[in-house]
Amino acid sequence: MRESESLKFTVPISSELHFLAKQFRLSHRNSKKAKQVYFNTLAVSAVNFYLRCMGVKTSWSASLSCNPVIQTMMDVADLEIIGLGKLECRPVLSDEKVVYIPPEVWSDRIGYVAVQFDQSLREATLLGFSKTAQNGEILINQLRSLEEFILQLSEIPQKVKQPIHLSQWLTNIVDAGWQTVESLLTQQSELAFRFRSPEQILAENSENSPINVQKATLLDLGGQSESKPIALVVGLIPLSEQEINIIVKVCPVNGQNYLPEELELMVLDDLGISVMQATARNTKSIQLNFSSEFGERFSIKMTLGDVNFTEVFLV
To answer: Which domain of life does this protein belong to (predicted)?
Structure first.
């Protein structure tokens, strides 16, 4: 990576990032949509790399651009900045002078970053940012510097993170950033094999009652430029009108056979006290099972080095 005198930021586009973009692209049969998703994915990954280098916490898994269903319906390249909101990362080809902003992302964005690719698609340069969509077009020569962008982030009030309502999953109301395991398996064919046996075991351990609902989200617990993507899966098995069994599972993705070493998975009670935990050491997956009553809160926390992720759930 290198920083120019105009405060642009250039990063290499690794083969791993191209692989991820290809996986998303293969989810779409329409060639125009597939190409759009490919470039959007590369743009988001470049901005994600930059923000991690700047110490800004992001969650790509909570972004609409990570959802193949949303990709089909919208031209979206958003990246969730934890506690602040969604940043739109718009791809720009090497000969273009204008950043096109599709109507579906004119609102609900804290800003827009232009990402320009070289002709070989081996490098991406963050050209600058704009606070607004400006009626769908932003002239590249009118972009503000990345330095201003980082300063702007420090001035945005922190959002209060709302809990994930698990009881709503039972009525097919699912929170943004979560998807069916089948949808995730479409993206991650390697993961499909790993879920067959655990699902059978879960059914046996619950007196042959099937998992009523199972949703998944993709996370990246890598620090700085390092990418360590994993899948977090939460399954629900109602036991009665008051109680429900909850299954929490983490698995490697992107062709990885094992979870990152020293990845720690914890279940916290409503006071933030760890009540269950496990650590990956040459581990293919981690699974924690427990029961909860409707109306109770708990959290799932994962840590890997100095990177951590916490999600709050309301049963």
So the answer is: Bacteria
